[in-house]
UniProtKB/TrEMBL annotation:
Record keywords, A-Z: Hydrolase
InterPro entries: WD40/YVTN_repeat-like_dom_sf
Domain of life assignment: Bacteria
Keyword Kinase attached: no
Record Gene3D superfamilies: YVTN repeat-like/Quinoprotein amine dehydrogenase (2.130.10.10)
Gene Ontology MF annotations: hydrolase activity
Protein name, as recorded: Glycosyl hydrolase, BNR repeat
Amino acid sequence: MDKVTAYREKPLQRTDSYQAFAKNDQVAVLVGNNGVVLTSHDAKTWSRTILAGMPSLIDIASCPDQRLIALSFDNQVWVSNINGDDWISIEVPTQEQLMTIDCAPNGNWWVAGGFSTFLHSANDGQNWQTTSLDEDAIITNLVFISEQDAVATAEFGMILVTENGGISWDLIGFLPDEFFPHSTHFATTAEGWVGGLNGFVYHTKDGGRNWLRQSADSSVPIYQFVQVDDALYALGDNATVMKLAGSNWQTVQPPTAPVYLRAALHFNGKLLVAGGRGMLLALDPNVVIVSAGKAEQSDEI
């Protein structure tokens, strides 16, 4: 029993399923199932917190005031202090299932999900404004690129944009073959990438109006993108990490375990990637070389 007790006191546990990363100027925060919140100031040592009620945390974002906001599957927004270790919950007044959260550059909180629904709050969740395109589609990703510009992707390959800070949203086009966008990354309002369960990665240079599929040396499902300086990485199933080279995706960490990677963050000089079964790796983004079926310069936390 002493060994069981000691294991339960560890910050990372094999029963964890990590979902999303965020950071501010002080701390990196990783969230997952059963109310798990991990925080680190150095990408080496981690502290573990379990939120009240053990909610399933599915997304997290950092705000301009350095607070962090996380979304749980029961449509609660969880708000932390700047150290990520003191959390309160706020219920979002909607019957639609929420799937994604972001904090706009002006500090407004945004969530989105079922029935092409967006909600935002300008006063820390006290009041919410609702917008819907009245389309029976689930919004899976939402990201603000500037105070006025944001891009969202949804079921059936829908691409939604706003150019007025979310006052209105426009459907500007669709991904090829009604591709379901599981992950989205827009570097600018014009250039972006989407990935999905079939392992395809599509790229646009005109704000989502036209898309081209990029080649990849792996067919694993893609769950997340992360920018590291001028390099773009993609995370996938079986603990796979790929890097964009020109217009091709090259594997830098090949399949090593039957575990998904869904959360990613560039923090303290490391590329942090995390996913199922409590997997959290710290990769050196400058030395990710495939060697004998294993990525060098990687450390399991």
